[in-house]
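Translate sequence into structure tokens.
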Amino acid sequence: MIALGAARLMCRKVTSLCRWSRLARPARPAMLRAGTLGEPTLDETMGWTLFENGKTVGARGSENGAILVDEEHDLGARITLEQNAEIAPFAITCGIYGWAFHTRFFGTRAAADQDLEGMKNAIGLILLKIPDVDDPALDLKHHEVSQAISTFVDQFP
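Result follows.
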């Protein structure tokens, strides 16, 4: 847990990509791998549900604010919106399990809400790029995922 905390602090300082480990996922059913032309489909990025069935809403989040929105993607990510965060009125934290953690701060709820859905869609598309453990192009795809995460951080600084 100490190493994870150190990685989180480093990410917070540079608001950048952190890879705790280069994880691949177990093989997915073929219907979840890609759309008809090999590109992810929008339906496949919509796997967001309430984290812990909404039990965390109202609790303190990682930025010490009250959680307003807390959702998890079934392919391995989480996004949280907090109000009255420690250093800003609103914060969005998101993580792609085993790959990245990113925090953004906002002055208004409207500004946070404006980016929340776009961030969720972008994370969903990144999740589809994470290779299966049996993928013959595992190393190449790890690089592609890292690039996609860097682009995400640039798009949502």
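Note: The first strand starts at residue 48 and ends at 50.
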